[in-house]
Amino acid sequence: MSGCCLFLVCHAPLASALHAVACHGFGRSLSDVEVIDVLSSQEPEQVSQAIALRWHELNEPRAVFFLTDMVGATPYNGVVAFMKSHPDIAHAVAGVNLPVLLRAITYRSLSHCELIAKLGEDTGQYLQTISPFQTNR
Known about the structure:
The chain has helices at residues 14-26, 44-57, 74-85, 98-106, 112-123, and strands at 5-11, 33-38, 64-68, 90-94, 128-130. It has 137 residues and is an alpha/beta fold.
């Protein structure tokens, strides 16, 4: 999964805020991290469509890794909906915070299994892996 495309999909304004702090921490713009702030008025289908549009605009990368905030919430359900139609390219975890995001950026060249293990190991955080076949609505 070398050079995977990272998507940060969270309740607004969390995705943008985490991205801004990560840019500050790395001392540079992180334009290769896709940010999707999910509004309270959005439905999971709309989130999935926004992800699909952004994925298409990026020329449909073959490896996508999602970081989302909360299991069962709209951003999570939008990610799951996208993953159902792209199970071979998309992997994800829920429970993102700043240390998790910084590690994901640092270790993005690892395979998705190695990346998930590294994220939990290095941050000491519990992360929920996401399967495209989960239903938490």
